[in-house]
Amino acid sequence: MRWIDDYRGASEVTALLAQISAKMAHLTQYNAQQPLRIMEVCGGHTHAIFRFGLDKLLPDNIEFIHGPGCPVCVLPMGRIDSCLDIAHRDDVIFLTFGDAMRVPGGHGSLLDARRKGADIRMIYSPLDAIKIAQDNLTKQVVFFALGFETTMPASAITFIRAKEMGLSNLFGFCQHITIIPTLNALLSDPNQKIDALLGPGHVAMIIGANAFTPLCQLYQRPLVVSGFEPVDMLHSILMLVQQIQDQRAVMENQYARVVRADGNPQAQAAIKTVFCLKAHSQWRGLGDIADSGMQFTPEFASFDAERYFQPIQYDSHEQPQACCAQVLTGRCKPQQCPLFARQCTPQHPTGALMVSSEGACAAYYQYNQECICQTM
Amino acid sequence: MRWIDDYRGASEVTALLAQISAKMAHLTQYNAQQPLRIMEVCGGHTHAIFRFGLDKLLPDNIEFIHGPGCPVCVLPMGRIDSCLDIAHRDDVIFLTFGDAMRVPGGHGSLLDARRKGADIRMIYSPLDAIKIAQDNLTKQVVFFALGFETTMPASAITFIRAKEMGLSNLFGFCQHITIIPTLNALLSDPNQKIDALLGPGHVAMIIGANAFTPLCQLYQRPLVVSGFEPVDMLHSILMLVQQIQDQRAVMENQYARVVRADGNPQAQAAIKTVFCLKAHSQWRGLGDIADSGMQFTPEFASFDAERYFQPIQYDSHEQPQACCAQVLTGRCKPQQCPLFARQCTPQHPTGALMVSSEGACAAYYQYNQECICQTM
Amino acid sequence: MCIGIPAQIIQWDKCQPHLANVAVGGAVREVDLSLIGALDEQGHSRVGQWVLVHVGFAMSILDEQEAQQTLAALQAMSEVESDVAAFLKVGGGAHALD
Amino acid sequence: MCIGIPAQIIQWDKCQPHLANVAVGGAVREVDLSLIGALDEQGHSRVGQWVLVHVGFAMSILDEQEAQQTLAALQAMSEVESDVAAFLKVGGGAHALD
Amino acid sequence: MSNDVITFAHGSGGRAMQQLIQDTLVRHFDNPFLRRGEDQARLPLTQLASQGSQLAMTTDSFVIDPIIFAGGDIGKLAVCGTANDLAVGGARPEYLTCSLILEEGLPLATLDTIIASMAATAQQAKIEIVTGDTKVVGHGCADKIFINTTGIGVISPEVHWGMDQIAADDAIIVTGNLGDHGAAILNERENLGLGDQLVSDCALLWPLVEPLLSIRGIHTLRDATRGGVNAILHEFATASGLGMQINEHALPVNDAVRGMCELLGLDPLNLANEGKLVIITSAQSAAAVLNALQAHPLGKDARQIGTVNSQSGVQICGAYGVTRHLDLPYFEPLPRIC
Amino acid sequence: MSNDVITFAHGSGGRAMQQLIQDTLVRHFDNPFLRRGEDQARLPLTQLASQGSQLAMTTDSFVIDPIIFAGGDIGKLAVCGTANDLAVGGARPEYLTCSLILEEGLPLATLDTIIASMAATAQQAKIEIVTGDTKVVGHGCADKIFINTTGIGVISPEVHWGMDQIAADDAIIVTGNLGDHGAAILNERENLGLGDQLVSDCALLWPLVEPLLSIRGIHTLRDATRGGVNAILHEFATASGLGMQINEHALPVNDAVRGMCELLGLDPLNLANEGKLVIITSAQSAAAVLNALQAHPLGKDARQIGTVNSQSGVQICGAYGVTRHLDLPYFEPLPRIC
Ligand code: SF4
Ligand code: SF4
Ligand SMILES: [Mg+2]
Ligand SMILES: [Mg+2]
Ligand SMILES: [Mg+2]
Ligand SMILES: [Mg+2]
Ligand SMILES: [Mg+2]
Ligand SMILES: [Mg+2]
Ligand SMILES: [Mg+2]
Ligand SMILES: [Mg+2]
Ligand SMILES: [Mg+2]
Ligand SMILES: [Mg+2]
Description:
InterPro entries (chains A, B): Hyd_form_HypD (IPR002780), HypD_1 (IPR042243), HypD_2_sf (IPR042244)
Pfam families (chains C, D): HupF_HypC
InterPro entries (chains C, D): Hydgase_assmbl_chp_CS (IPR019812), Hydrogenase_HupF/HypC (IPR001109)
Bound molecules: iron/sulfur cluster, magnesium ion
Oligomer: heterohexamer
Family (chains C, D): Belongs to the HupF/HypC family.
Radius of gyration of chain C: 19 Å
Strand content of chain C: 25-35%
CATH architecture of the largest domain in chain A: 3-Layer(aba) Sandwich
Order of helices and strands of chain A: HEHHEHEHEHEHEHEHHEHEHEEEEHHH
Number of strands of chain C: 5
Largest sheet of chain A: 5 strands, parallel
Order of helices and strands of chain C: EEEEEHH
Protein name (chains C, D): HypC/HybG/HupF family hydrogenase formation chaperone
CATH class of the largest domain in chain A: Alpha Beta
Number of helices of chain A: 15
């Protein structure tokens, strides 16, 4: 398929690996014990790294730190429990992307709730929520609006349409979160071990590549906004290595075919109409981060499921032994968590990093645990 | 089983038949063309006549006219449609005796509605409704309170209990009807052909045998309150024949082991607390009859499903060719209805007399239509 | 209409005085006694009594004496009438009894 | 997170201007164009254009020129680098390519 | 919490399903056919062919509510039902398949109970359950558990039972009380609260059938399940073109079922049985058949209830000598109350 | 109005059921076994035994939603699925049973379409549907219609296929594009609106299997249904104790399925097929097998996707030469989107 296969070519991958290896061979400050640590911010990148074996192909003085950019992995248990509270009410149809179905809250997952009789349905597009609400006027239809900036505009347009149509039985449970405050929080941690960042291409598509520039300046770390195919990612890594070699620390945009410097203005406008920043938001494993989550604007407050249903607000008691926070911040590897592959498995995840195949722990479990690490 | 088998003995049946035959042989004004016409008021009697073949055993100068005492058979289509309207609402659990499940309204039966998704359940006792209401506090539980005086006290006690318990999610759709105004209407019809009446034993158990005395006096017809076993019924018929022979027309009570002259005072009190007469009620096939139906008293009006749900009130358009009215009033036999066994069958009943196996038409269809009428 | 069946009260618990178990043949069912009273006129439990049951309620107490009288009368009649019956059988009406 | 896939606009109906059909490989799906505009800068239909699709919306128009340049540069590099690749293969790192 | 009930994972073809199959089905049914784990069981055909020249094959799906009831459970029923459909053809039940449709949320412990019950019933009858299938459907897309069993066996060479053998003057025999199963199920399903004397008669009937193989003059037999004895008599009447005449007073009904039928206006002839046969035999053989039946506990209440005549349809002769046509109800009987 | 949908009456054993069986099942499946109307079909055992010494028997329940989909319907699927489970054992499918669980409210016209489709599919394969069963459950107690089919056939005497034959260095072959059925169903069930190029591959595979009977060196075959090719490879690996190594770039996937998988983050290896085989054959026979397969339209895209090795589990070699273990997902895959 065009635009995909173009960026999976073996010869380009070979060449990029060669370039990277050659450059890394000269950066002698990095070795297998003290590797160059690149955080891929986005779960999509994490998934691609394992799917294509990029970690195995790269020289061993490069190491990936799997970042917080998987909306499912950073979802606090208490938020799922609030969703369950709403979904279990009579006359509620609860809509979610497939991604969130298995995330465990303190009282089970949405999949468990459906098993107990709640009407919970998977959708592909937020627009599907409008159709379902129209078809079920005597029910309350609640859309679990989950995701980073990439997904926000789709939610926003959906509620703008609902408002135009006067649809009063559609609600949103807003769990939209924004990545830059979280990167700020991570990078300002004195214990962090991040040398460079692979920037999230699809978030940048909305907010613009330039939105990442202040981060680079403030923390003096190189960041390359990257596409999601192997060639994209190796190309971005090469650009990062080049910056390291040049001792620069700037934002560069490898994914320019998709990402503009200023992003998508229509999408930004839609977001601004429907959502505004919340003072505080919880992130699983990361705790409270100021200005990192969204809520409905006063103009759209009538769509706010939390306002309408007043669900119980649960505390998110995480398992004390779980190392999700350390894994998310690059301070330990999944297999160093005492629960990994024992108490915490994809079938019975303790932490959210084990739920989505974009979560670092699930990816390690699926692709690495039994990996024979043999190359042809 | 005691009290049942005692009244099914072949020797008693033989003796009674012999007595009746002997007496009827002397009443020469009655012959096969001009028989003595006895209306069994109650559907329970109709059922027993066919089940035990009493019509075949009796001399052919006695003929049964199947009366209006089957609550299902006189249920107007419009009332079923109002039930359907309520049952289809979200959050309603609709409870009914099995008897009413298949009765066709203009928009199908309760069984059809359940097929389309309505939560409709069969119960054996009105008290079951209390349990279901307690177990489903977020739903509205509606009990279809159907039946003659026999069933009214059970409904009444149920709502008295619900009131004591403060149960606010239980309602009654009241289709309780009372038999005496209807017998009055039938007997006052100048075209009626009723010579004597088998009185409904279980209604009399509640209202008392004496309640039928005025009818006998007013219309000069013998009436014997009868039990439901073959010996009971033949005994009652013998008593009727004796009155005819003696040219008397009084109320007699064959069923004294169950029925007191003044009925059951507790039951009457319960009815009076919860229900009162309505000015007008529709009867299928018989039209409007004054003072023949019940409604909730003002004190119990909060339980009235019609008040709470304001269901659409449907007209009861009956099939113009259907002869239900004539059959109910003894002016024609089921097989003389042009729809009988053609358009109107137990699987697809046009008229209500074809629904319940206590309905005259269903009984004819089931027991008589193909009957070989052979005796051993 | 109104199926009513004779049943014998077989169990009663004074903690739930308005309820009792009755037997209908081998079937046992809990019924409500409110409409006949939990206790009899002498204030005794009704266990052993026969009642008529409809939609989960005991509606009437069966009157044994009344019943005996009727049945005795009928039996007497059936003895007297055996000749008539025999006559009917031989004479061959449209019906007969085995 | 945020799966976004390139797709080509293959069908558009001016009666429903905010909707179009796109092809992703052989799969066809209706997407919403609101976030990129139903028409291009010249006021023409976007049929034939490539867009990035996420949750049923076209989120960005793929820039062909930009893409050509990058790919050309990479291809050039891969030709130049064939020696390096061969070296790596022979020299035997922890990894290799077929 | 979520690991002790059936989830979609148990039906997805993935690891959870393999585990369920091994831990529950293969464990309880354990036999070499199943252990091979192929897509099909491979059965000794030559050995089967040595027993006779006709292979009997039958299938039934079981959808009962409640799934565990007085006298049995859906697992026992699923084995007995199919085994009995083979037995009534004169075939000893040999091999069964077991196909499960499970509703998301079914407790694994319940499933285990049911499968253990199937295994125990099969073992008692020396039946091997040789292949199976498991599907999981969403909450509200099935009612807890449905089981299909399909069975095969070889028809004993000396028997030629079939509805085409039915002849006028044959005796109609039932092997015991009517309606026990239907009454027990109705009582539990509709919460009628009619006590614990209503118990399903669910049983394996081969032990009752086997002694009949050698009796000459038996024309056909059938287990009287759904629709009761009435439905079977109608099938016989339709297939043979003859009349089935039964005597009401001869019908065996136990006291609890009779009580229930009086209370709810039902007829035991229309209630299901799961351990009763209707047998059509020549009048001369009736006594021998009854003797053989009554010698077995499952047949102790066996009796002749009527005779085949040259008319048509099903006729019932009441207590006072009136004979009437017995209609086959169009519907499953509903309680009549008010 | 109420007479054109399934009602409880159709499952009650009464007249409505008899009518449904005659008008729908017996009419479409028409054959002498079924027409006899006994509780069990009586099949010619002697004739079966003349074809071989092993009887293959298999069962499957079909619970698909939607019941009619691009490329087939639940009826066609129910015949193909069970016939294919016989075929992969080397047995020509001979006789099938058909057991229906119907939800109250199912339109009779829909049922008729499905039964007609079963009949047509069976006829095409010269399979007789010899006995059946019909149950009706209440609204919300099943999902429209579930079908169980159980099949038997005689295993061709020259074949000894089985997982116990798998050996290191064997070739792993698939007979065509992966995931067509799973993709088509997911698209329709979840209303994904991904166009009409997603079509189930539901097909009878005996015509593809028959030419393989005479090829020596074939070790085992399996239709890759639920769980996809991945699940079958795991079964092979577990049963044989050997490793299954496949090459990602060799996997045949059609363009529409690939598009869908990219959009939803799915892997075609985990998607169900209903017309594809996975074949393990000795390396020497691989070419002959591929030739035989490619000569048939159902096998035109057949190719070798990997080899058996002496390790364990399933390994996949990616485009850049990295080999990794391929996990068998614990769950049915859910779309990943946000
Ligand atoms: S293994 Fe589980 S608990 Fe441990 S870090 Fe990973 S997700 Fe968290
Ligand atoms: S046959 Fe039908 S329409 Fe005619 S009188 Fe009877 S119930 Fe009414
Ligand atoms: Mg069967
Ligand atoms: Mg059966
Ligand atoms: Mg049977
Ligand atoms: Mg299977
Ligand atoms: Mg359920
Ligand atoms: Mg199978
Ligand atoms: Mg299969
Ligand atoms: Mg298979
Ligand atoms: Mg059957
Ligand atoms: Mg449904």
